[in-house]
Amino acid sequence: MTAGAFPFEANPNPVDDARRAELLADPGFGRVFTDHMVTIRYSDDKGWHDAKVGPRAPLTLDPATAVLHYAQEIFEGLKAYRLADGTMALFRPEQNARRFQRSAKRLAMPELPEELFLQSCRQLVEVDQHWFPPVEGGSIYLRPFMIASEVFLGVKPSAEYLYMVIASAAGNYFKSGAPAIKIWVSEHYTRAAPGGTGAAKCGGNYASSLVAQSEAIRNGCDQVVFLDAAEHRWIEELGGMNLFFLFDDGTLITPPTDGTILEGITRESIIELAREQGLNVREERYAIDQWRADATSGKLVEAFACGTAAVVTPVGSVHSTNGSFTIGAGGPGQITQQLRGKLVNIQRGIAPDPHGWVQPI
Ligand code: PLP
Ligand code: COI
User: List-wise, which residues carry N6-(pyridoxal phosphate)lysine (predicted)?
Assistant: First the structure.
């Protein structure tokens, strides 16, 4: 199939204006959903077919649907913004489309053509554009995903798939709105091993991270940081964000993406912006013991997490069963705030976009 506009069926019972205004006044993250959704089906015999935008509604699934048993599922996350001039745009959506294809390949799923991915995102935002929250940092968060929909209990790649996009009004990811987050080091659990699915955005990675994330919350932290599976020493990433470390000589380090961490689009954008402002950016391994030593000696001056949902979020302190340490003064660092400002201003059409990252809808 080609990617012209998909057939559209309006939701006969959309959320009314008064209720929507109430929801949009404080949307938080991932709880307030728009009126419509996109669906596209795939089968081995027909290929991609039956694309449509219709009312957002519950799914009916046979209890033997493959995804419910073997977790053959992948997803993406990207934001639509209302720009300073009133138009709407997506940030580097082709990067999400390509990562979705890489995830599909790793999970033995069919690759959705880039143009269908882009059209599905654009059309949903167009239809549900009255769902932009009028709050600071507000956006529409898009969640494209694909599930194995064949009704079959044998362990093999499904012969049928359902691709969908839902949309959600989004404010801040971290509820506390805290100026800097607290990180918990998972000493027992790992997120991904060499040869595993760490670089794919598949639900299974998140399912296996939850016990460690719960441990972080129990210990008063916001997010868990995972170490490598082999030596349990090298810092990889957070449950849903990549990490950067800034040193007093202007060096910025981020762990390399060699198969066990997600190739974050925010990460890649920050690397470019940081190089442009003269920082010496290096993608190299950084050990947890070194982090503690460098933070204590003052050599490490800032650290931050980044991702679509979290944007750029300063890391204030790091906690583990071996004790805690503080990064810098424990609040947002100056370079972190600068980089965040640069990124957000491009995303929102406030600053020029020399890289062509912002795609009008
Ligand atoms: N790492 C993990 C595990 C994530 O879930 C995310 C969020 O998508 C990221 C990193 C950041 O990726 P991106 O910047 O593409 O959103
Ligand atoms: C995103 O940032 O888009 C993610 O998928 C991460 C998750 C923590 C919401």
Answer: 201
How many whole angstroms separate alpha carbon 104 and alpha carbon 323? 40
To test the pocket of ligand 1, the residue of 308, 340, 357 to mutate (highest count of ligand atoms within 8 Å of its CB) is 308
Collect all residues with Cβ–Cβ distance below 8 Å to 86 and sequence separation of at least 6.
none
Is the Cβ–Cβ distance between 157 and 40 less than 8 Å?
A: no
Question: pLDDT per residue over 300-339, tens digit each?
Answer: 999 999 999 989 999 999 999 999 999 999 999 999 999 9
- Ligand 2 shell residues, CB under 6 Å: 77, 240, 307-309
Asked whether residue 258 is assigned to any structural domain, the reply reads: yes
**In a 3-state reduction of DSSP, which class is residue 52?**
strand
Ligand nearest to the CA of 99: 1
| Residue 5 φ/ψ, nearest 5 degrees | -60, 140
Q: pLDDT digits over 72-127, tens only?
A: 999 999 999 999 889 999 999 999 999 999 999 999 999 999 999 999 999 999 99
CA 127 to chain centre: 23
Q: Token pair of 164, please?
A: 């969908």
In this structure, is residue 6 part of a structural domain? no
Q: How many CB atoms lie within 10 A of CB 88?
A: 18
Q: Do 79 and 228 fall into the same domain?
A: no
